[in-house]
Amino acid sequence: MITTRFVDVVVAAGHGQVERPAHLAVHIAGRGPLALLVHGFPLDHRMWLDVLHGPLAERRTLCAVDLRGHGDSPYQGDAAHTMARFADDLAAVVRALGDEPVDLAGLSMGGYVAFAFAARHPDLLRSLVLTNTRASADNDVQRQGREVSIAQVVARGRAAVVEAMLPKLLAPGADALLHARLRTMIEGTPTETIVADQRGLQQRADWCDALHGITAPTLVIAGEHDQLTPVADAEVMATGIPGARLEVIAGTAHMTPMERPDVWADAVATLWQ
Length: 273
Ligand code: MLT
Known about the structure:
The chain is built from ten helices and eight strands. The protein is of the alpha/beta class. D-malate binds near residues 40 and 41.
């Protein structure tokens, strides 16, 4: 069974922006030590539903967080959702739920947040799963691409995001219901959240030169056909982080925990003994 708790973040300090409190929804299943599951852009906890209902819940208390402005966590008026702010929000969730180090799994934008969490809150981190993500920051072309995407979503609404992203999220031949689930999530994410996410993604740090300093046991997962964060990006992380292991999931693209939740869970179980 999945239960939902709300955590109030009173102050998210230290990243040069106006302080805005947050009211964060955390969807919880399972037993044992805490593990946070952090969704990608512009999604929410529902991308983890198959994982929440799967065998990892026998090993960990799985906590799928809705980042501020996503899912059941309201948008708070932030102009930019920086990865640092998201990471500080997660730290507040960890402190509210038990104040023990957690296992952290982040997909794509959730992986960028995981890097920020590892840098800002190493005392709260037990292990890392970096899935369908990358360590590099945006280059100028990618930043400009986000400007175009912001202009399109402001002018045309979320349909523009669905059209741009949905064809890249899943491997060819994926179940139509998976497409529908993703479309539902994107269409349910406020336009203002999408803009604030894109602003935060534009500003995010490059972690390539800091990978060697990550001491938490790490698993890197990639999708064989992922166009958004290709296998080559995963290889950079797996090579750079001491002791990290790489798992490439055949027949999948960007949404491995939805496309092959069974294989994804088996891989993660090797880390979460
Ligand atoms: C995601 O899935 O979170 C996005 O593709 C991340 C990004 O736009 O860099």
